[in-house]
From TrEMBL:
It is an enzyme of class 2 (transferase). ATP binds at residues 95-105. Keywords: ATP-binding, Isoprene biosynthesis, Kinase, Nucleotide-binding, Transferase. The active site is at residues 12, 137. This is 4-diphosphocytidyl-2-C-methyl-D-erythritol kinase. Belongs to the GHMP kinase family. IspE subfamily. It catalyses: 4-CDP-2-C-methyl-D-erythritol + ATP = 4-CDP-2-C-methyl-D-erythritol 2-phosphate + ADP + H(+). Its EC number is 2.7.1.148.
Length: 280
């Protein structure tokens, strides 16, 4: 068997998430600041001569054909007419439905990895456009750079964000993203801001108050983390995070709140390994 291509499929945080207005197609115009993290799922890719796509392990309760990893591989096959296949292995560390982009990151990592292994030679913008069919957060992971995003999240401008450490915790609940964006009480009229404002002033997550009111476990997490810093929601949740002054501080807070909450410590990362793979 050929040597596997091993890649980190990183997490992201939304440092701000402003919802400006609802679009005619039912989606929302957003402004958000994506921070990539050096923590994520570990993925290995093996190219095969057959067109078959396999994933190990499969996700309990999720048919293979509905998994974003499988969808991404099949989409690249169909778009390029490629006749190769792949075996994909994943060590899952990121929580599903946590707002840290696990599924979108896995899909983006699959697109970039297989584009490299299969030598389909698509540019980053082409891969990002394909990825947008799978989810609004996929393009930022394809490009592999922390970014300012607008539209539904597909209009990206890379930014270099300050070095920070974060503690991210996952309350024992799952947030239905579609429910939040359909909810009549969601804030949808935050004025547009510039990148400069986003980078120099504190913004908010327009989903936060609604999510906290609907999910008691998330409200509990906010109150617990508030003892140590300023907790924030990423995406629509359920993950809650706080900025820390050092790795040691983040690890100490995590030790203090365990086993009440599960979580992880991560370092800010402006470029992911995918950005390097795209330039080879």
């Amino acid at each position: 068997m050929n040597e596997p291509l091993k890649l980190l499929s990183p997490a992201k945080l939304n440092l701000i998430l402003h919802i400006n207005h609802r679009l005619d197609n039912g989606y929302h115009h957003l402004q958000t600041l994506f921070q990539l993290l050096n923590y994520g799922d570990e993925m290995s890719f093996y190219s095969t001569e057959s067109e078959c796509i396999t994933l190990t392990p499969e996700f309990p309760g999720l048919p293979l054909e509905q998994n974003l990893i499988y969808k991404a591989a099949r989409l690249l096959q169909q778009h390029t007419g490629c006749h190769f296949g792949c075996n994909i292995q994943i060590t899952k560390k990121l929580p599903q439905g946590g707002g840290v982009g696990g599924g979108s990151s896995n899909a983006a990592t699959t697109l970039v990895a297989l584009n490299h292994l299969w030598r389909t030679q698509l540019k980053a913008d082409e891969l990002a456009k394909l990825g947008l069919q799978l989810g609004a957060d996929v393009p930022v992971f394809v490009h592999g750079h922390s970014a300012w995003a607008e539209g539904v999240g597909e209009k990206l401008i890379p930014v270099d964000l300050p070095h920070k450490w974060f503690l991210v915790i996952k309350p024992n609940t799952h947030v239905a993203t579609a429910q939040i964006f359909r909810h009549p009480d969601l804030t949808r009229n935050t004025p547009l801001i510039t990148i400069h404002t986003a980078l120099t002033q504190d913004g908010q997550n327009d989903c936060e108050n609604l999510v906290r009111s609907l999910y008691p476990e998330i409200e509990k997490a906010f109150k617990r983390l508030a003892q140590y810093g300023t907790p924030k929601l990423t995406g629509t949740g359920a993950c809650v995070y706080t900025e820390c002054s050092s790795k040691a501080e983040a690890e100490q807070i995590l030790a203090d709140i365990s086993p009440e909450f599960e979580g992880f410590v991560a370092e800010a990362m402006n470029k992911s390994p995918l950005s390097e793979l795209l330039t080879r």
